[in-house]
Specification:
By secondary structure, this protein is of the alpha/beta class. The chain has 20 helices and 15 strands. The strands form four sheets. It has a nine-stranded mixed sheet with strand order 3-4-5-6-13-10-9-7-8, sandwiched between helices. Strands 1-2 form a two-stranded parallel sheet. Strand 14 (465-470) and strand 15 form a beta hairpin. The longest helix has 18 residues, at 112-129. The N and C termini lie far apart (52 Å).
Length: 495
């Protein structure tokens, strides 16, 4: 209720040159009364029976290429089965917005507490049937998403899509086993692939390209010198605005290729093909690109939203164990930010699969949609990163992988948050995934503290830390005294 299904369906149908059909309107015509009146006179059970028959007929013989269904239709197991051959689009709406739109005006929207409970109860069913998720259901956004929604039919079976929105751009995120090598494409024009030596050996031949630029693997290659070489190679290969860059690799390649795409001829399109867990759950989304300076991580960069992201979870089987472990730091971080069902899944030892990656991506994209440029809410995504980046900087990006440094940064953030019990639980989760929970004693805590003062997110000379009140209640911009920070970093070394 209140997700905007009727207007979104009309927008999608208009883009297809068709007419949308709303199951609630059809049902009211058959019942000869409004849904609210029928609820009152016959009860919900009678209404659901009538709804099931009406919607079943519509799904078996669609009267239009675009149908909008009532929010409770998916409670019917029969209708969930009949939805299987169709492309099902979930309009994701938060409880507050849905209540503002329909509270007090629908039979099942009389009581706020019951309304929230109903949404929580149905959410797993919605997620279970959805082939695509729209985080913004406004008419113009839906209209622009229609080509990507239609292209799902050409993707490998089981592929799901999220339509990402940000102030400077929108793009589809496709997640499905076998995307790399399937021939599935989202953009026309010549593709210029940027990859690293390791990923290129494994998957370079699976991605058709006009030209391929290969860089050395590892954070040490993410610098201005490498970026200059890549830009010259793109120019030599004749990349123009009809073509695009493809970032085939992990977070380093994604950041580097995205940065090069942002500055080459003042901006060309980029498609992200993330191949590590860190990049699949975090860094491939949101448009942050950049390279490192000796003074700090990602000191040079630009916001440049991708034109598409293609995530193939199957490629994770070729990741070295330590790289896969590093990605779990971002999964656990994202679950702490999201709270609720995602935190429950992760703390219970959820397996790494398509749905877990989708849930992490959806969490990040919802945050970015509300704050693309890190001016407010998006700062929560830096949980664990202030100390983590400082550790990477003082160790020259050689001692710890990014995810390993974030693992330590998370524990420092929880220490600063005064969350002893939660810190112990997160430490156990990190350790179980093979991540470090104790800082190497060769690392100088004072140097780490000093490096945080150079954090690129500082404002007015102060660094605002992201602290945790509880899973799902994460707050950015919190001041921390230097003495507290020194104690938290010292605690990473065992006291």
């Amino acid at each position: 209720m209140g997700a905007g299904k009727t207007s979104a369906a009309r927008a999608a149908a208009a883009a297809l040159g068709a007419r949308a059909v709303d199951s609630d309107h059809v049902l009211e015509e058959r019942l000869g009364s409004s849904i609210e009146d029928y609820f009152t006179s016959h009860g919900e059970r009678a209404f659901r029976d009538a709804e099931e028959e009406t919607v079943a007929e519509m799904l078996e013989s669609p009267p239009s290429p675009v149908l909008s269904l009532g929010g409770g239709a998916i409670t019917s197991e029969r209708l969930r089965r009949l939805l299987a051959p169709h492309t099902v689009v979930l309009l994701d709406v938060d409880e507050e917005t849905a209540w503002r739109r329909c509270g007090g005006r629908r039979p099942l929207a009389r009581d706020r507490a019951r309304f929230g409970a109903l949404l929580a109860e149905r959410a797993p069913l919605y997620d279970g049937v959805a082939d695509a998720v729209m985080l913004d259901s406004s008419r113009e956004v839906v209209r622009r998403a229609v080509p990507a929604l239609r292209s799902l039919a050409d993707a490998p079976p089981g592929t799901r899509m999220i339509w990402a929105t940000a102030e400077s751009g929108e793009y589809p995120v496709f997640v499905g086993d076998g995307l790399i090598g399937s021939g599935f494409r989202t953009l026309e024009g010549a593709a210029h692939v940027i990859t690293d030596a390791n990923v290129g050996r494994l998957y370079g031949d699976a991605v058709p390209a006009e030209a391929t630029v290969t860089v050395e693997a590892g954070e040490e290659a993410k610098n201005l010198a490498t970026a200059g070489t890549v830009l010259e190679r793109l120019a030599d290969a004749g990349l123009d605005h009809d073509g695009h860059v493809v970032a085939l690799g992990g977070g380093v390649v994604g950041d580097l290729a995205g940065f090069c795409a942002a500055v080459y001829q003042r901006g060309v399109r980029v498609v992200q093909l993330p191949t590590t867990l860190v990049s699949q759950v975090d860094s491939a989304y949101g448009g942050k690109t950049g390279v490192d300076l000796p003074q700090g991580k990602n000191y040079v960069g630009a916001y440049h939203q991708p034109s598409a992201v293609l995530v193939d979870p199957r490629v994770l089987v070729t990741l070295p164990a330590e790289e896969l472990a590093a990605g779990w730091a971002e999964v656990i971080k994202t679950a702490l930010i999201a709270g609720g069902p995602l935190w429950d899944r992760v703390r219970a030892g959820a397996p790494l699969d398509r749905d877990l990656i989708l849930a992490c991506a959806r969490t990040k994209l919802a945050v970015v949609a509300s704050d693309e440029r890190d001016s407010g809410r998006r700062q929560v995504l830096n949980l664990g990163h202030t100390v983590g980046h400082a550790i990477e900087t003082v160790t020259g990006y050689r001692r710890y992988r990014h995810g390993e440094a974030v693992s330590l940064g998370l524990l420092a953030a929880l220490e600063l948050s005064g969350q002893a019990a939660l810190r112990a639980e997160v430490s156990a989760l990190l350790e179980a995934r093979g991540l470090p929970v104790v800082l190497d004693r060769a690392v100088d805590p004072g140097a780490v503290v000093a490096a945080t003062r150079r954090d690129k997110k500082r404002r007015a000379g102060r660094v605002g830390f992201v602290l945790v009140e509880a899973p799902g209640d994460v707050r950015p911009g919190r001041p921390v005294e230097e003495g507290e920070l020194r104690r938290a970093v010292a605690e990473l070394r065992g006291g």
